[in-house]
C-alpha cells in the first residue's frame, strides 16, 4: 500500500505580519501534482491543518479547495486528524457526511473509537486516526483518572488497540504528538505539560508498521525509519532555514517491510538569513533569490537612513532587519540559547521577564495570579 | 412535490446577553419530528442559518448535527442558501462534497449558475437557489454596471432564468431578500440600500410556482399565497411577541396548483411582555409560563430594592426590566415610532443622535467622515 504522509499545513499562518496563504496555495498546488504523479492509495494529513481555531476565510477557502480536489478530482482517500492548533468543534462540521466520500477527518476521540481499514492485494491496513487530545480527555474516555501525561494517554490507547485488533496485520498510527528525541524548531507551540512532560516514547509504537506523525516541523525519523514526522509543508520561522521541506511516500508491502522516500517541496519563496554591510547588500547578490523571505543582519555600526526602505527596493520580502552591531547582547544569542529559553514553561518565562524588568523576584502572590491566568488561557484556547 | 420550507434559523443568536442555542436545539428537534412525520421530498432553508459570520462553536455543532441527521438518517434532500447574516466563504467549506449526498448549500452566485432539478411523477421541478448577494456582485457576474439595486439584480436574474429554462415547467425560487409589502420586526438587519431601497417587487416572480423566502421573521405571504416567508424558527426579539412561528409545507401538484399549510413550532420558552405592579407580579401569575423569556414593565413609581433579583426568583428568565413609570419619554414610544426610527439609514440615525446630544446639526465634514466609516464597516462585515 502506497501512503503519502504530510502534516502541519498551518493554513492561515502569519509570519512577521505576512500572511503565508499565497505561499501555501502555491505549495499545495505542488503537493497535488505529487499526488497525481505518485497515485498513492491514501493521503495522510497528521494534524495542524489550520494555524488557529478561527482561521481567516482565505485559509478556509484554501483547505476547502484542496480537500475537494483530492476527493472529487483525484479520487484518493484522505485520512486527516486535528492537531493542537486546530479547533476540533469547528473542523468537525460535515465530517460525518465527508466519510461517505472517503474523506475521514477525525477531530475527537470517543468511546466508539474504530480504525479506518483499507484493503490492498495483501490484505487489510488499519489506520488509527488519533487527533491531538489532552491527557484529561483520554482519562475521561477510558474512565481512568491515573492518566495524567501524554505518555500515559498514548500507552492507554495502544493497550486498547493491541487488545481489540489483530496486531499481526498491518497497523498505521496517525498522531499529532511530541515523540521524545525529536528535533524542535521555533514555530511549534509547546504541548500541555500537565503530567510534567509533553513527550511520548517512540518504543510504544513497536507493533505498528508505520507511525505517521505531525507536530514537529522538521522532517525526521525517531529511533527507527518507520516512526516519522513528515514535517511542515513550508518553513514557518527563521529557525527552520536549514530544513528541507518534503512529503513522505511510504510503500507498505507487508507488516515489517516498508520503504520510505522523501519527495521535496520547493517553495515560491524560501526563508533565508543574509548578513553583510549595507553597501554590499544593496548590490543585490546577497540572497539566493531576491524574492526570498529574508532575515537581514546588518553589520554596519553607524547611522543608516531608512535601511529597511532602501533594502526592500532590492529585496522586497525582508521580514526582519537586525542591526547586529547595534544590539550586542541580542546578537550573541545563539540558537541553543533561544531553544533553552523556548523550553521554559510560560510561568518561568514570565518570572524571568519580571526579574529582568523589575530587578526583583516575582512575589508569590503575583506568581499564583499569573499561574491561574495562564491556566485560564490554556483552557480557553482549548475550548475555542 | 412536497416541499418543507423554513428559514432564518440564526444559530448562535444572542438576545439580551442570553445565548439561544439551547432553545434552538429544542426547536430543531421539533423540526426534525415534523420532517419525519410529513416526509417531504425536499427541505428548503432560505438563508440566515447562522446569526453571524463567525458563529460560536456550539452553533457550528448544532448546524452540523442537524444537517447530518437530515441527510444521513432522514435521507431527505436539503436545499439551503446563505443569508445576509451568513459568511459565504466559511459556509462554503465542503459544499461541493455535500452535493453528492443531496445537501445543496449555495453560498455564491457564479456565471455557471444552474438550478437544482428534482423529479416527481409529474415531471421536473427546478429549484433556483439564490443566496443573498449584493447588487454589485450580480452586476459583476452579468457584466452589467447598470445594476445598482436589489430590484435590478433580481430582475436580471429572473430574465436570465426565463431566457434559459422552460418556464412552462415548475420553478421554485429560493431567495433571501426583502419583498416590498412585507412586515418587518425588530430583529432583522437592514439590507444594503446602495440603490436607494432594499425592496424587491413581488410581481417579478409571476412565472414561479412557488417562492420560498427568508429574511423577514414573521411568516407571511406577499401578494399571492405562493410568495412566502416561512419566518424564523423562534422569536428573536420582543417585537415578535405576537408572531406564531411555524414551518411551511407546500404541495406543488402542477405549475399553478399549490397548497400551503403552516405547521406550528412550539418553543421551550416563549417571549412574553408582562406589565403590572411589583406586588402583583410577585404572586407568580403574571406570565403564561414562569419560565418564559420576559420583558417586564413595572408600573410602580417609588423605589424598589433590587426588583430584578426578586422577580427573577419567580420568573427566572426575565430578559428586560422596564420601570415604565420612571421613564416617561421611553414608555410612550410606540412600536410604530420604533419602526420609523429603525427604518432610518445609519447616517440619518447618527445625525439624529448627534442633534439630540449636541443640540446642533452634524457638520458636513463630520458627516462625510461618518459616511465613509459606515461604508468601511459594511464592506468589512460583508468580507468577513
Tell how many strands the DSSP assignment of chain A holds: 19
Oligomer: homodimer
Give the chain pair forming the largest contact, with residue counts: A-B, 25 and 24 residues
Gyration radius of chain A, rounded: 22 Å
Mean residue pLDDT of chain A = 90
Helix content of chain A: 25-40%
Class inferred from helices and paired strands of chain A: alpha/beta
Tell me the CATH architecture of the largest domain in chain A.
Answer: 4-Layer Sandwich
Protein name (chains A, B): Nuclease SbcCD subunit D
Subunit structure (chains A, B): Heterodimer of SbcC and SbcD.
GO biological process, one term (chains A, B): DNA replication
Family (chains A, B): Belongs to the SbcD family.
Give a structural overview:
The model of chain A has no long low-confidence stretch (mean pLDDT 90). In chain A, helix 11 crosses helix 12. Chain A has three domains: 263 residues, 4-Layer Sandwich (Purple Acid Phosphatase, chain A, domain 2), CATH 3.60.21; 61 residues; 40 residues. The first copy, chain A, is of the alpha/beta class and 384 residues long. Helix content of chain A is 32%, strand content 25%.
Topology diagram in text:
The structure is a homodimer of 384-residue chains.
Chain A: E1 2-6, E2 14-15, E3 18-19, H1 21-38, E4 42-46, H2 57-73, E5 78-81, H3 88-91, H4 95-99, E6 103-106, E7 116-120, E8 123-130, H5 135-141, H6 150-164, E9 170-176, E10 178-179, E11 199-200, E12 210-214, E13 220-222, E14 224-229, E15 246-254, E16 257-264, E17 271-276, H7 278-281, E18 293-298, H8 307-314, E19 318-323, H9 328-331, H10 335-342, H11 346-358, H12 364-383
Parallel strand pairs in A: 1-4, 4-5, 5-6, 8-9, 9-12, 10-11, 12-14, 17-18, 18-19
Antiparallel strand pairs in A: 1-15, 2-3, 7-8, 13-14, 15-16
Domain Nuclease SbcCD subunit D C-terminal (chains A, B): 268-356
Subunit structure (chains A, B): Heterodimer of SbcC and SbcD.
Keywords (chains A, B): DNA recombination, DNA replication, Endonuclease, Exonuclease, Hydrolase, Nuclease
Amino acid at each position: 500500500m502506497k501512503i503519502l504522509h504530510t502534516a502541519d499545513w498551518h493554513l492561515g499562518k502569519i509570519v512577521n505580519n505576512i500572511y503565508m496563504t499565497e505561499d501555501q496555495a502555491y505549495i499545495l498546488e505542488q503537493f497535488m501534482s505529487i499526488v497525481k504523479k505518485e497515485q498513492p492509495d491514501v493521503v495522510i494529513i497528521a494534524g495542524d491543518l489550520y494555524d488557529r481555531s478561527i482561521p481567516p476565510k482565505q485559509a478556509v477557502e484554501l483547505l476547502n479547495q484542496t480537500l475537494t480536489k483530492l476527493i472529487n478530482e483525484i479520487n484518493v482517500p484522505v485520512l486527516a486528524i486535528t492537531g493542537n492548533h486546530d479547533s476540533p468543534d469547528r473542523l468537525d462540521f460535515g465530517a460525518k457526511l465527508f466519510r461517505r466520500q472517503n474523506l475521514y477527518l477525525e477531530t475527537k476521540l470517543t468511546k466508539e473509537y474504530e480504525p479506518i481499514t483499507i484493503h490492498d492485494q495483501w490484505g487489510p491496513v488499519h489506520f488509527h486516526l488519533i487527533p491531538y487530545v489532552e491527557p484529561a480527555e483520554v482519562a475521561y474516555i477510558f474512565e481512568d483518572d491515573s492518566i495524567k501525561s501524554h505518555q500515559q494517554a498514548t500507552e492507554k490507547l495502544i493497550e486498547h488497540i493491541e487488545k481489540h485488533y489483530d496486531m499481526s496485520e498491518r497497523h498505521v498510527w496517525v498522531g499529532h504528538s511530541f515523540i521524545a528525541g525529536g528535533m524542535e524548531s521555533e514555530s511549534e507551540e509547546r504541548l500541555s505539560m500537565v503530567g510534567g512532560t509533553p513527550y511520548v516514547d517512540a518504543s510504544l509504537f513497536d507493533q505498528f508498521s508505520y507511525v505517521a506523525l505531525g507536530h514537529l516541523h522538521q522532517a525526521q525519523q525517531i529511533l527507527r525509519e518507520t516512526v516519522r514526522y513528515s514535517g511542515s509543508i513550508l518553513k514557518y520561522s527563521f529557525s527552520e532555514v536549514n530544513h528541507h521541506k518534503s512529503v513522505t511516500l511510504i510503500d507498505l508491502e507487508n507488516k515489517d517491510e516498508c520503504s520510505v522516500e522523501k519527495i521535496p517541496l520547493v517553495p515560491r519563496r524560501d526563508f533565508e538569513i543574509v548578513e553583510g554591510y549595507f553597501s554590499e547588500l544593496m548590490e543585490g547578490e546577497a540572497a539566493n533569490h531576491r524574492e526570498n523571505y529574508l532575515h537581514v543582519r546588518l553589520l554596519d555600526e553607524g547611522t543608516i537612513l531608512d535601511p529597511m526602505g532602501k533594502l526592500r527596493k532590492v529585496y522586497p520580502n525582508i521580514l526582519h532587519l537586525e542591526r547586529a552591531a547595534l544590539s550586542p547582547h541580542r546578537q550573541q544569542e545563539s540558537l541553543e540559547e533561544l531553544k533553552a529559553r523556548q523550553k521554559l514553561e510560560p510561568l518561568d518565562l514570565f518570572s524571568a521577564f519580571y526579574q529582568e524588568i523589575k530587578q526583583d523576584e516575582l512575589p508569590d502572590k503575583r506568581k499564583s495570579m499569573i499561574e491561574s491566568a495562564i491556566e485560564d488561557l490554556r483552557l480557553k484556547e482549548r475550548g475555542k
